[in-house]
Amino acid sequence: QVTLVESGGGLVQAGGSLRLSCAASGRAFSIANMGWFRQAPEKEREFVAHISRSGGSTTYADSVKGRFTISRDNVKNTVYLQMNSLKPEDTAVYYCAVARVYGSRRHEDYDYWGQGTQVTVSS
Questions:
Q1: Cβ neighbours of residue 26 closer than 8 Å, sequence gap 6 or more
Q2: Are 39 and 93 in contact (CB under 8 A)?
Q3: In the predicted model, is pLDDT for residue 1 greater than 90?
Q4: Residue 62 backbone phi and psi in degrees, to 5
């Protein structure tokens, strides 16, 4: 069992940066592959990034590649999403979750979702 709590969202101007955190409880965190997703109003939840349990392998959605970086600290039981060069289209609620299927980009393949953190990018 893993409980996830996201934080770090807020309001930022286009071109700015934010770092999201996803704090996990439960000893299973260090063996869990993790992902970040986002959901804008009236849109489907979409994949943002995935990181392997060791942190050695990462994948990104094309829309964020080169701007966002996913990382993790297994001692602190935390996954991060560093977001740079933010655009208004990045505005969404951001969620972290545990990947039940390694490397999947489908939200159906993830469990133990956090409550989300709002990111708003103004133009």
A1: 1, 2, 3, 77
A2: yes
A3: no
A4: -60, -35
Q: Decide: residue 110, CB within 10 A, 0-12 exposed, 13-18 middle, 19+ buried.
A: buried
Cα distances from 50 to residues 12, 23, 36, 76, in angstroms, run: 24, 16, 6, 18
The one-letter amino acid code at 71 reads S
**Do the beta carbons of residue 40 and residue 47 sit within 8 Å?**
no
d(CA 53, CA 50): 10
Does pLDDT of 29 surpass 90? Answer: no
User: Per residue in 30-85, pLDDT tens?
Assistant: 789 999 999 999 999 999 999 999 999 999 999 999 999 999 999 999 999 999 99
Rounded to an integer, what distance in angstroms lies between the CA atom of residue 62 and that of residue 59? 9
The per-residue pLDDT for 23 is 96
